[in-house]
Amino acid sequence: MLQHVRFSRRLWILAAWTVAGFFCFRFFSINTQNELTNEKQVPTEKAPDTDHSGRHHAHEHSVLWNDAATILETCSLAHIPGFTMLQNVYSINGTLILVSDNGSSLPIPKHVISAWAKVPERRIYLAEEPTHHRIRVVDRATAIRLLGLSARRLHGTTWLFNEPLAYADDSAVLKALRTHYMQESRTGSGPSYLPPRRLLFPHIPIKQQHALPGLSTTPRSIFPSIGIGFKEDWYDYASHDRPIVFDTLVLLDSAATFRNPRILQQPDHSLLRLEVLSPLLAFTPLSNTWWAPWRKRLAEMIGFMESKSNRLIISYVFSSSDHHGKLDSTTHDSLINAAKALEQSHDLVFHVVDTASTNFIDRLRLALSTSIMFGPTGRSLMDVMWMPVAKRATVIELFPDDYLTAKQYHVSKVVGINYQAWRGSRIIEMPSITNETYSELLKSTLQRSVDIEKALRDPIKLDIDKFVQHLVACVEAG
Question: What is this structure's pTM?
Fold first, then answer.
């Protein structure tokens, strides 16, 4: 009897646990189903491995299309001859392919890039119009035949400088950043498509990059994560049969600038134009503040600290290794002695900077603090673009008797620095050089049949007394 009672109790306990388990199971099942139902209603972001149309791919470094209707077309974001910003640019075996069923919506190829060739026994390069081996504009159906149905994708923005070393200079970053400002409003945090992912120099070998530190050192200072490639790296892109596609491509080519119909109003003199004009003349002026954030970023990256002293800094900049644009030895020594006397009499700081023997970062730090910079015409003055913009911030370019160039004039103009050209004993007024009128400077040079190579080799002589008087006037003007 006792055993029967114990068995009955166990049976009731087991039944109770079974019922409780059943209700617990139902409760959690309903809640789980509700959670799953609610999760389906939450919007999700696109996966990172999608192309511009939103289609998913197995690998984010590939772009696939099924037919001509689905291949991504090339889009022009901004363009003036020599400075072009495009989306979805294809390249196969070194040829740039612009894809559009409406070819008139894209820039004219000869206004985008040039075919550069070295002129025998001269440092000057001849820039010819590009052939189909350099760049092509094709419709979608032709693109399929040329490219196939896939391409390797290069994410982000790529800067491509289509120039040889002879016509490259330290203003590469300035030109590329100014190009971005063509397609963006001047409000908010600045232009989109920044920072760039990579910077390519297809015509400059790796071993030559140190000839111009601004080609690699400056971009890395402003954009620490940027990848930089040279001629050998471009060959790696161009030597494969499989195409690549650039998300966003900024193309810069100084020779293409001078094919602008608004500038080219005379028979072709490409060599001379490249010598005396600047591609930056194509840009309209911006507010002087546009460049300030980039100057500030460079200063922060190289550890520059603004001096608390109010003493004005003047810098005489030249290159002892350059065979062009040099003061003769007597003028050089007399100018230094006169400037040192000015340093004592006006309580300022005077620096003599030989760019051939000065560390590039030290040059940048000095430019960031210099208010007045002067020196012979040439690449050494390019550091002027980092000078602080102020009322008396001035660059004075010294010229020989038979040569005049507007390159430094336009660099100074773009960043908001006062520019002066000096020859012998006086300031010479720069001719008006705009997109509307052909350069009087170029015309006069053509008419006089100046031998530019000889003119640049001739030593520069100055009237030291008059030049120092002019320096005093610049100092006291502030």
Answer: 0.81
